[in-house]
Design brief:
By secondary structure, the chain is mainly α. About 70% of the residues lie in helices and about 0% in strands. The protein has two helices and no strands. Helix 1 runs antiparallel to helix 2. The radius of gyration is 16 Å and the shape is elongated. The model has no long low-confidence stretch (mean pLDDT about 85).
Amino acid sequence: MSPVPPPSPTRRLALYTFVVCVLAVAAAVVSFVQGSYLGVVWVLLAGLSSNMTWYYLKREKLRRAAGTARTDVTG
């Protein structure tokens, strides 16, 4: 049996938001290095996606602790 649990929709959303966060941070760095204040928008997007990542990870952890077998993303 694999030590990695099977992917669930919530874990997948957490991974996607994490990737968006990393890309937004990279875009912010590039913008600021080029002297553009547009990097502020990228920083805000990174903060939002970071919060979404933590939310989805916490939600998945609570779901597993409750022992439910729900796999929908609307609950």
